[in-house]
Structures are given as C-alpha cells and as structure tokens.
Amino acid sequence: MTDQHVDLLIIGAGPAGLAAAIAAREAGIESILVLEREKEPGGILRQCIHNGFGLHRFSEELTGPEYAKRDVDRVRELDIPVRCGTTVLSVSPDRVVTCVSPEFGFSRLSAGAVVLAMGCRERPRGALCTPGSRPAGIYSAGTAQRFVNLEGYMPGRRVVILGSGDIGLIMARRMTLQGAKVLACVEIMPYSSGLNRNIVQCLQDYGIPLYLSHTVTDIHGRERLTGVTVSRVDENRKPVPGAEICFDCDTLLLSCGLIPENELSQGAGVELSPLTSGPVVSETLETSVPGIFACGNVLHVHDLVDHVSAESFRAGRAAAAFVRASSPPAPVFTVKDGPGVRGTVPQKISARPSEDVSLMFRPADVYRNAAAVVECGGQEVLRKKAMIYTPGEMAVLTLKKEVFESLPDKVITVRMEGEKQHG
Amino acid sequence: MDKVITCINCPVGCRMTVTLSDAGAFVSVTGNTCPRGAKYAEQECTRPLRVVTAVLPVPGSETPLSVKTSAPVPKELIPEIMRVLGKTSVSLPVAVGDVVVPNVLQTGADIVATRELSSR
After folding, report:
1. What pTM value is reported for the model?
2. Residue B57 and residue B27 share a domain
3. Could you give the CA distance from residue B120 to residue B118 in angstroms, rounded to a whole number?
4. Is B58 found in the same domain as B37?
5. B71 vs A: CB within 8 A
6. CA distances (Å), A182 to each of A168, A209, A210, B72, in order?
7. Which pLDDT does position A213 carry in this prediction?
8. In this predicted model, what pLDDT tens digit does every residue of A226-274 receive, in sequence order?
9. Beta strands at A158-162 and A251-254: parallel, antiparallel or unpaired
10. Judging by DSSP bridges, how do beta strands A82-83 and A62-63 pair with one another?
11. Are A148 and B55 in contact (CB < 8 Å)?
C-alpha cells in the first residue's frame, strides 16, 4: 500500500535535483515530486555566499544563493512541487520511497522513476584518526559555513583550519571578515588541493599562513578546545618528531574531503564504485537498479556547480525517457581507468547513446604538458591536450555519439600522458 | 622594484615577476604564459580589486541576509566596507538585487542583497 504514485520522484532539491526536475518537466513529464530535507530548496548553494558560480552556464559570476534562485524560480514557473522539511528514510529496488515530514507524517510513495540527488557529506573528525581530547569547538568547515552564513552564529574567535580544500580556504576568509583571527591553514600534502584563486584571495589577502606537509597531531582542552599541536610530516605523511608548533585556539575547522552520501542508494541495492564512492552508472546516469538514476555530488564530487547542473539535466531527460518507455538500452561498453586516472564516470555506455557522452574523472597527480587519452581496442579515440591537469579539477572528455558506431572493442580506457609533478 | 605573484586565472598558476617603478607604476611582467596573466599582473600590482561578500543580521529574521558588492572594489577598502556593513540596518522584506548601501565608500559599487528574506 502506498499513499501516492508519481511518475518521477527526485530526492534532494539542491542544484542537482532542481536541474533534473526542470529537464524532466521540459521533456513532458507532468507528475513530478521533489523531496527536500531542509526548509527551503537550493541545497549547499544557500550557504555558499561567495561569488564565482555560473561562469560556464550563465557566463557571469554569481553567488551561491543567486545561482540557486535561478533554478528555484524555474521550478516554480514550471509548477513542480517541492516538499521541504521531508527526510527520506528508504528507497526500495522497486522504487517505493518512505519519508517523514511534520506536514504529512509518515508516507510511502511509489514512483515510475527515481533520481538520487542527495549530494555529499564532509569527512568527519572520526575518519581522520586525529589524536587528543574531544572538546567543543571542532567543526567541519561546511558546518561552520552554515553557522556563519545561514544561522548567524560565530563558531569561535581564534581558528586553525586543517585541510586546504576550497571550503576550508573560503571559511578562512569568512571567519576573518566576520571578526575572527585565523592563525593557520594546515595541509598534510605538499600542495593544496584548493584553487589558486582561493589561496590568493582567501589566505594571502589576509596574511594567513599555509603550512604544507603539516598536520594536526594533538588536540587540547577539556570542555572547550584550548589549542592544537601541528607537526611537520615526512614524504610518507608521518609526523617528524621535534618539529611541532602549538597554536592557542578555540576553534578547529576540518576541510578534509567530501564523500557522496549514499546510505539510501545502498538500501535500494544500487551498486557503488569504490573509486568515486558513488553509484556505478551508464551514460544515461542510470544506476545498476533499473529506473533509479543518480546525478550531482551523490554520484561523484564535483568542483563546479555548472557541471552538476549539466549532468543533472541529462539525468532528468533520461529519467523522463524511462518513465515513458521503461526499456533503457542495455550497457555494452565498459569504461576503465587507465594509468593516472581515477574514478571515471560513467562506468558503462550503451551501444547507441542518444546524446554525446561526457567522460569525467580526476587525474591521480598533477600532470604538466599533458594529454588525456581515450582508447579502445588499441585504437586512439580521443586526445585532449592541456598545459596542466590537476586532481583538484575534474577533467571532462566529450565523445561524439557517432564514435560508438565504429569502436573496435567493448572496453574503453582513459589514461593520462605527460610530466608527473610528484612521481 | 620586483614583486612575485601567482596568477589566478587557471590551474597552471604561473609564478610571475612584476617590475614596478619607484613610484609603484607597472613597468613589465615575466613568467606569464598568456595575455590574461599579463593583464591580471598589472591590475593586481597597481590596483587590486575584489568582490566582497558578507552576511548581515536582519531584525525579525532568523536567517541573516547575504550581500555582495555589485562590482569589484579596491582590496584595501575591504576592512572599511565590513565596518560600514556592521553599522547598516536592513528591514524586511528583502529581494535579490535590492540595494542595501548605495555607492559604498564612493567606489561606484553598491552593496546588494543576494538572497530574499520575506516578512512573515
């Protein structure tokens, strides 16, 4: 027994879910419902008040809330219902979704197709195995961002940031502008994974030192954080004794990576990739479970929301096609990571893709004077040269749909060529 | 006088050496690989500009108002702009694009709202 049937059910009203909803409605699907855990749509963009979003899609630099508003406005214009304050509890392989909300209580919804658009989570302290006590004052950078930008609280006054990903860098500037003293940004790797622009405009502009090849090796304080010990690490990322620095601080922010949030996907029996931590998908963004699609950061962590939107429009169109025809083409080609390549999406491609196929991946290292190469059966299918490929920037290789008519083999390999920076 | 800066236009991140006259005027740049780098180097060493974003508390709203400068403003004015924002009061409702502070510090840029806040 279910309470309601919809043709397309979308989980998450961030940029991915909104784009999927827009594309499906524009493809003619009338019955769509978007479920959102927060009290308003927009996802993580709501708290990303800095600018730099939308350069690819809109050819202008928007702040996160402004980017989100464009999709939210379009969803309203198309009269697509978004049920906010709703937490999804489970998704079954036959597309029955259970959820709870203050307004509707417990509901069971059946769906013709489901789009998973739940986004990602930050790697928490527990996953970093940092020693020391467990006082208050330790937050993930995104949690601090939410406190400052959406809830109007300052998490603390004297701050150390562990990890130099973009969210950590952005928060170094935010905390400084709102009156805190950011003492240091500490990065275990010999290079930052953040954008040059953020290193310059978030750290250097405010005189915040970046300690490369350093990590936090002790945490002090009982009730509230009183300080952290930072140690230099060797080339194997092991702390070097005698090279410790102590910082008096009341706040430690963690910016140590993002992980796709796939608890619901696993419950639905969706196969996950150990490389991306997201579902294994075909070029239509369909998972291993028929009629369940995935897009955005739940599939693989993106650096640009513009890419999320583009991917999610494709997922919305494909889900619409599934609702109408219910017989997606079976995957024929398998995409494999070659040397220097990690986590290529999609992992599978059908015999005759209906659109050009974008292969997205991260290089495993920094490559200079490099090329990304797609091969099949010993034959070079595509070569894309660039002065630099870095792990901090997702590479996108677009294969024309006609290419698939004449491939010599069923295995497609993506590999890197060029000068590796770190060996 | 020479100044070394990192280009922010793309992931290559060229390390560029900029030569300035004693008066601080731009003379030349080396180390860039494209014209965008040269343009950025001159701008950054003579008159660095930034878009400033921040949040303001708004009476009657649990959610603060996010704002930005409508155009890039001189970097050295950022602390003063934050002080101006600290003294700025906003009342509900607010729409995206509403001008919160016109022509902030005579820069020609306005402080504008980047989200909406409705009065309930």
Report:
1. 0.94
2. no
3. 6
4. no
5. no
6. 11, 9, 11, 24
7. 95
8. 999 999 999 999 999 988 999 999 999 999 999 999 999 999 999 999 9
9. parallel
10. unpaired
11. yes
Alpha helices in A147-252, H assignment, sequence order = 166-177, 196-198
Closest CA of chain B from A2, distance in Å: 35
Among residues A70, A65, A145, A41, which one has the least CA distance to residue B114?
A: A65
B86 part of a folded domain = yes
Residues 6+ apart with CB under 8 A from A384: A371, A372, A373, A395, A397
Instruction: Verify whether the Cβ–Cβ distance B8 to A149 is below 8 Å.
Output: no
Distance in angstroms (rounded) separating the CA atoms of residues A310 and A58 = 12
Using 50, 70 and 90 to split pLDDT, how confident is the model at A79? Answer: very high
Q: What is the DSSP letter of A391?
A: T
Q: Which residues of B touch A53 (CB under 8 A)?
A: none
- The C-alpha atoms of residue B49 and residue B68 are separated, in whole angstroms, by 14
Q: Computed from CA positions of residues B38, B44, B45, B48, in that sequence, does the dihedral angle turn out positive or negative?
A: positive
Domain that holds residue B35: 2-47
Looking at the DSSP bridge assignments, the partners of residue A99 are A88, A107
Vertex A354 angle, CA A353 and A356, to 5°: 75
Question: Do the Cβ atoms of A150 and B8 come within 8 Å?
Answer: no
**Percent of all residues in chain A with a pLDDT value above 90, rounded to a whole number:** 86
Could you give all domains of chain A from N- to C-terminal order, each with its CATH number?
A: 1-121+257-328 (3.50.50.60), 124-254 (3.50.50.60), 331-423 (2.60.40)
Q: In this structure, what token pair is assigned to residue A321?
A: 């096609």
| CA–CA dist A241, A307 (Å, integer) | 43
Question: Strand order of the sheet with strand A251-254?
Answer: A138-140, A251-254, A158-162, A181-186, A210-211
User: B51 CB near a chain A CB, below 8 Å?
Assistant: yes
CB pairs under 8 A between A and B: 73
